[in-house]
Write a structure and sequence with these properties.
2 domains, two-stranded antiparallel sheet, 134 residues, homodimer, DNA-binding, alpha+beta, 5 helices
Amino acid sequence: MKQGLLTDRQKEVLRFRKQGLTQQQIADIIHTSKANVCTIEKAAYENIEKAKETLEFLYTLDATHLCTIRSGTDLFDAIGEIYAEAEKIHIKVRYDSIGLINRLKESNPERFKGRFVRDDVEVYITEEGDLCFG
Amino acid sequence: MKQGLLTDRQKEVLRFRKQGLTQQQIADIIHTSKANVCTIEKAAYENIEKAKETLEFLYTLDATHLCTIRSGTDLFDAIGEIYAEAEKIHIKVRYDSIGLINRLKESNPERFKGRFVRDDVEVYITEEGDLCFG
DNA sequence: GCATGGTTAAATGAAATGGTTTAAGTTTTA
DNA sequence: TAAAACTTAAACCATTTCATTTAACCATGC
């Protein structure tokens, strides 16, 4: 059965990985080679990427591009920029500073290092003031 | 090119639809039958569903199930329940009431009708107090 | 050096997906 | 009610995807 993008095999491997098993250990359990476990895991992450990109497209469908937060930017400067840009187009952002930082961080936790942005972040906003990040 | 789950064809159709065109109008523009536009559009929504399910799986991988908000529940009762359940397992929710309602609503806007929940919503929480909805 | 953990490339077969047509159905609405 | 809008089913073919194997390749740590 395949509910979602991930195959049963891929979910199985991800779960074992989450438990801290090595690829070799997993290979032994599911009776295949570690190379295969590696490729299955890799395919899983590619599928997850695709899923994220798909939903991002959805956002851009009814949201307009607000601004780009450049890599290296301080988080607090970033939210300042977001508020400023939103004001320019007369949309009130639906989040306070704290909420905004939380939204940013949870959109893709790996993208932040402490107070700094690691990669460029595209910011979209809906007419209702909801934010999406790409 | 296919960046994400949706094919170029599918994105094209979704964009035209967002502009309010009928399937027949789109069919004329892209030189095919309206039946085909229908199936393309349908496939697009199936892919979007898959994308959502995929990310939901990711959440459940490192989040634990907190509670189920039953269809018909008042939103304000729902957030009360969420706070109560989180307290039981000694996790502090990372959102205030307003932020929590926003998170809920944007997780799947069609699922809410005014102050009420239309379909059951599964609530997951991470150790850090982040919430996900399934 | 050599065991361990991880990654990569090439090849293969089975399964699925995507776009298409044709043709038969609903539902909506003017 | 009749036209317009939308949905569904069946069949076709080309392309892609998945899991798999084998065999090689980089690190790291002892």
